[in-house]
Design brief:
Length: 170
């Protein structure tokens, strides 16, 4: 957690105090009592899956930048203020891989180490309903369908676990 000194509400001094639980510390304003909650950040990921008689395929994007340049990932990102899980998944699929999706079922919820802390990764199986898959942002240089049983090196362990869970389910 970055060093925080002042209250965003009144500019009073922040001090670390337990709130609700004696072993969980949060910055609390000494002047107005505002609590700057230090909760986990949520991310959504959308393995886009298509099925036919030959089996299932998954749409992935290849990272064009570090970290883990050259590895593949499902479209996704952090939830923003005002997002719903569904709206964030639709936005990220359109933004990253230029496809419109329909949400399917929840694959799972996973924890992941990211930057300097733990995030919660919410994964929904999705299906493409429109669009021609292609890289849509600078950090992705290619979009490609892969057999679900034979995916390339993946960027994040949570997506590896989600794809393994998808394989078991399908």
């Amino acid at each position: 957690m970055p060093e925080l000194s002042f209250c965003p509400r009144c500019a009073g001094a922040l001090e670390m105090r337990p709130v609700d639980q004696p072993d969980v510390m949060h910055p609390v304003c000494a002047s107005c009592g505002f609590v700057l909650w230090q909760n986990l950040k949520a991310s959504v990921e959308a393995p886009v899956v298509r099925r036919d008689a030959a089996g299932a395929e998954i749409l992935l994007g290849r990272r064009a930048v570090e970290p883990k340049k050259g590895t593949w990932d499902a479209p996704g990102g952090f939830l923003n203020a005002g997002d719903t899980v569904a709206s964030a998944l639709v936005r990220e699929c359109r933004r990253e891989l230029r496809v419109d999706v329909e949400l399917g079922s929840l694959v799972g919820v996973y924890e992941e180490q990211f930057a300097d802390g733990t995030i919660v990764v919410i994964v929904y199986e999705c299906s493409a309903v429109a669009g021609d898959p292609r890289a849509g942002v600078a950090f992705i240089d290619e979009a490609r369908w892969f057999p679900l049983r034979d995916v390339p090196a993946l960027t994040f362990p949570s997506i590896e676990r989600a794809i393994a869970d998808l394989r078991r389910r399908l």
